[in-house]
Every structure is written in C-alpha cells, then in structure tokens.
Write a structure and sequence with these properties.
563 residues, alpha/beta, OB fold (Dihydrolipoamide Acetyltransferase, E2P), Rossmann fold, eight-stranded mixed sheet, seven-stranded mixed sheet, 13 helices, 23 strands, globular
C-alpha cells in the first residue's frame, strides 16, 4: 500500500471515538467517521509499519441498520455529528462496545460493567450552541453555523440542526438574513478584518428561556453597507428577534465585543440590548444561574442522569467530607452538599469557581467551599482530609503528577471517577489499581446522542488497608495498556512535532517551529520557553507566510487550541 492509492472495503468495527477499522488484504486500515458495516472508498493517507490510515472518500453502501429518515439534512457537510443515520439503540451498542474494548484490557476479568444509560432526549437536547460567521467556500455568500467537516474556514449554515431546539434554528436564520440584508461583513480570521464573529444561543430546557449573544469585533467603519450606525443596526436586529414566533421566550439579547486575534469566543465588553444577561436553569431540584459564558453541561436532562448515577455510586454522605476535584461550576458538589458535612470544590477556571459560589448561595448551601487553582498545586494547601473524592477531570484526564498525590496523600476508601474520554479513564485506572484500588462498578451515560462522545462513571474502593495513612506504596499489579492506546496518548498531544506532522500529512508542506510559535503568540496561547534561541546578536527572523499560517491555524483547531 502506498500513500494516495484508492481502495474499497467494508468497515468491521469502530474504535473510540470515530475510528472505523477495516482490512485491505492483510493490512489493517483506520478510517475516521466510517461506520461498522459500511462499504467505503478510501484513499491511503498514512502508511507506516503496523499502522495504516485512510481518508474517507465516499460511502459506497450504507450499513444495513442505517436509516436516513429524520436525520439531519446537514450531516454530509457539518462536522458535528457522526451517528445521524444510526438508530439510537444501535448508537448505544456501538458506544458501549467501544468503552468495553478500552476497559477490558486494563480491568480484571468479570468486573462489574453495568451497561449504558441513554439520554432522555435524543434530538433537540443541546442547551447551548456557538455558531460562527463565515462563508461555505472562498468568496462565497456569508454563512452562519458550524465548521464543515475537516475544514478550518468553511462554514455550513445549519438552520435545520436536529441537536438544538427549533427556536435556536429560527434565531440563527433570522440573524443571518438580517445581517446579509444590511451587507454586514464577517470577520476574516487570517486578515483580522470584519465585523461579525459568532452567535451564542442558550436555551433552558426546563424554563424555555433564551439567551442570545452576538459577538463582533469593534471594526464598525465600512463593515456593513447600510448607512445605519452600530446602535441602530443592533436595535434592528433585536427587534427582528423579538418578532419571531418562538416556543420559548427571551431572557436577554446581548452584544459582546471581541477583538482577540484568536478564533475564540472572548468577552471584552458586553452590552445588554434587551432583558438581562442570565437565566436560571434547574437540575435535580437545584437552581443554576446561566450566563452566555457559563460552564454548564450542554445536555441538561442527560446531566441529571449522569449526576443521579454518580450520586447512587457515592451512596450515603451523611456527616462525610467530600472533595470535588475539577469541580467546574460545582454542580456535583451542590448535589452532594445537602447530606454531606462539608464539600470542597477545586477548579482551575476562575469564572467557573465564581459561578459555583453564586449558585451555592442561590441554593442556600452554606457547607460548600470552592477554590480556584490547579488541582496539582491546591492539594498541597488543603489540610482537611476527605472521606470520599469525586474526580471529573477534563478530556486529557488527571495530571500524571496529581493522581499519585491524590492517592498517597488521602487514601480515601471510595472515589468516583467521571470521565468524558474513556481512553484517559483507562490510562488512569491502571495507576489507581496499582495503588490498591479496585473498580467495583462502571457504567456509561450517553450525553451526546448523534455524536461519538460518551461519559463513563467508575466507582473505586480501597482494597485492604491501602491508604490509611500516607506511605510509599508498592505496585501490586501491572495492567497492560495496548500499543494502540499508547500511540493515541502520544498523538493526541498538541506538540510542535505533532502539529508539523499534521500539516505535512494533510497538505504535504513542512513548517518551521518558529512559524508555529509565531501563530500561537498571535492567538494569545500559552507558550513554553524557547530553548533554541539563536545565539546571533541580530538573527534574521522571517515572518510566516499566509499559506503556512492558514495550515497552522487548521492544526491548532484540530488539537482544540483554538475554536
């Protein structure tokens, strides 16, 4: 097999999150976004010993279980969903199999896997969407929606998206039509010129209240054709929204200014055009204040299933001290607080911590503390010892230095691990088991129907006298991680090497690390020290070309460093 060659084959299975597996002769090939049972045409994009990757060209024959009835009309172009043609029960089977395939090699035979719990809603379940302004093709008409699959620039207008309530689609379409009518120009990421950037829409599932936020630059000169000033222009947009026939009602209509060079939704200044800048959402009997930039689960009803599962696994909390590490806006902490003696939440994002404090006060909870900081560092400052720990880390899992510290320093009899990425969970479970914990219960919760993502909840209990006091532990067991898993951990990191490799494989272009560093600085991303600084007094530094800048931005988006 050689790069560029085209083959046809049938997908045998799908590994997490979206890796279709097929064989061409004796060669195993990985193809993203190909479903089990599909016959597909692929082009070889990467060939190395023991690992071959292909790019999906087209589906020759759908899988027998696929059904296009009721599927999203944007599914062929939008990069948001993979399982739109897959019946929901089949989606659950695929996700359960994927998680089992990751956990079975690292857990003892016969461990207690309790299946997968579905979402109460399979469509119109998302309570938040961030739409981008752009064009579907270079110099084409303005669009508003989601990025086209595999593209950093092309935007697909998703005004019939099935993951959001129809109210959100109506708001999207009305906004696009209004600003198109007035000849407004969208913000061009490379040139950093233009006005319209993003549209944020949030809708409470329980209340039907809607919060809309238009994100623009401050470039108002020559960025729309009508002779209206910005105030009049935005007033007209507000009135158009208020005139829509919606099932819900507007809590607020906002305008946010963002002049960041990075393609991220950032709040430099927000003006309320109508109503207020928040609404209240209810979760398991507790109320939470939702602002445009609040950190909150995007599937409210699914979140209730997830947190009810976690609460069941935790069991009795009367008179017990709880640590909620990676606490976000403190949802889990507040659900546990009524029965616990005290709950301490730790979260690195300060805005989330402030929101947690506000929500706790709103719910009359006085036994919750929330600390802003890195879990790795905060643990050194906490003198209180918890009776149980809740772990709900970001997608990359727990920091490799933080996990041993959590285990050795506290040695809790019980821990709950909530994971949004089962590959990270599988890796961390190896360490936890080696340190004397056993996994007594595991289940999955589908928070994102139609997509490849899934949540996993694991209950860990201490074996014997492990962890009763701080001590040096001896590893009792070695649990293997497959070479494929090791490879995935390595490749998912946004290192300079991987960014360069991504661009070379996709575009056949080599980019210098200095160019990557330049673009990262322009995007206001955190930078590590440069240990390869030229020793010349006045070294010649060439600026990155527009073409290579475009490729680097695409790679940064792929690794989720920018939106």
């Amino acid at each position: 097999m050689k790069k560029g060659e085209i083959y046809t084959g049938t997908v045998e299975k799908m590994d997490f999150p979206n890796k279709g597996i097929l064989h061409i002769g004796e060669e195993k090939v990985v193809v993203k976004n190909a479903l089990p049972g599909q016959t597909v045409e692929i082009a070889i994009s990467r060939q190395r010993k023991g690992r071959c990757e292909g790019r999906l060209l087209k589906v020759v024959t759908p899988a027998a279980y696929e059904n296009t009835e009721g599927a999203c009309p944007h599914r062929a172009d939008c990069g948001g969903c993979t399982y739109q043609t897959v019946p929901y029960e089949e989606q659950l089977k695929i996700k359960e199999q994927q998680v089992r395939a990751l956990l079975d090699p690292v857990l003892p035979a016969g461990y207690n896997f309790e299946g997968i719990k579905g979402s109460p809603l399979t469509k119109a379940y998302r309570n938040k969407m961030e739409f981008s302004f752009g064009d579907e093709f270079k110099d084409g008409p303005m669009t508003l929606g989601m990025h086209k699959r595999g593209s950093f620039y092309d935007i697909v207008t998703v005004d019939q998206c099935v993951l959001v309530h129809p109210d959100c689609c109506k708001i999207l379409r009305a906004t696009l039509d209004y600003f198109t009518e007035h000849g407004a120009v969208f913000y061009k990421k490379m040139a950093h010129v233009g006005y319209l950037r993003h549209l944020l829409v949030r809708r409470g599932v329980k209340t039907g209240e809607i919060l809309v936020d238009l994100v623009t630059s401050t470039q108002t000169e020559g960025t729309w054709k009508s002779d209206k000033n910005e105030e009049v222009l935005l007033e007209g947009w507000k009135e158009k929204l208020l005139g829509l026939d919606l099932e819900g009602s507007f809590a607020g209509i906002l305008h946010t200014e963002n002049d960041s060079l990075a393609d991220v939704v950032q709040n430099d200044r927000t003006v309320i055009l109508y109503g207020q800048d928040f609404f209240m959402e209810e979760l398991l009997g507790l109320k939470f204040k939702i602002t445009p930039f609040s950190f909150f689960q995007t599937n409210s009803l699914g979140a209730e299933v997830l947190y009810e599962t976690a609460r069941e696994y935790i069991g009795e909390t009367d008179g017990r001290k709880v640590f909620d590490l990676y606490s976000g806006t403190g949802t889990i902490a507040q659900i546990l607080a009524p029965a616990a003696e005290h709950v301490t939440g730790v979260e690195i994002i300060e805005e989330a911590v402030e929101a947690a404090k506000v929500n706790a006060a709103q719910n009359g909870l006085t036994n919750c503390d929330f600390i802003a900081g890195d879990v790795l560092k905060v643990l050194d400052t906490l003198e209180e010892r918890p009776d149980l720990i809740v772990l709900d880390p970001p997608r990359d899992g727990i920091h490799p230095k933080a996990l041993p510290k959590i285990i050795d320093h506290y040695g809790c009899e019980k821990m709950i691990y909530i994971s949004c990425k089962p590959t990270s969970l599988a890796r961390d479970l190896v360490v936890l088991q080696a340190k004397g914990y056993e996994v007594t219960r595991v289940c999955c919760v589908d928070m994102f129907p139609g997509t490849t993502q899934v949540e996993t909840v694991a209950l860990l209990t201490k074996k014997g006298d492990f962890g009763k006091k701080k001590r040096d532990f001896q590893v009792e067991m070695e649990v293997p991680i497959s070479p494929d898993m090791h490879q995935e951990y390595k490749e998912q990191k946004p290192t300079y090497e991987n960014i360069k490799k991504y661009i070379m494989e996709k575009h056949g272009v080599n980019v210098h690390t200095a160019y990557i560093a330049e673009v990262k600085r322009d995007c206001e991303l955190d930078m590590r020290p440069n240990y390869n600084v030229s020793k010349k007094e006045a070294p010649e530094i060439k600026s990155c070309t527009p073409e290579k800048r475009e490729y680097i931005m695409e790679a940064l988006r792929y690794y989720k460093l920018v939106v």
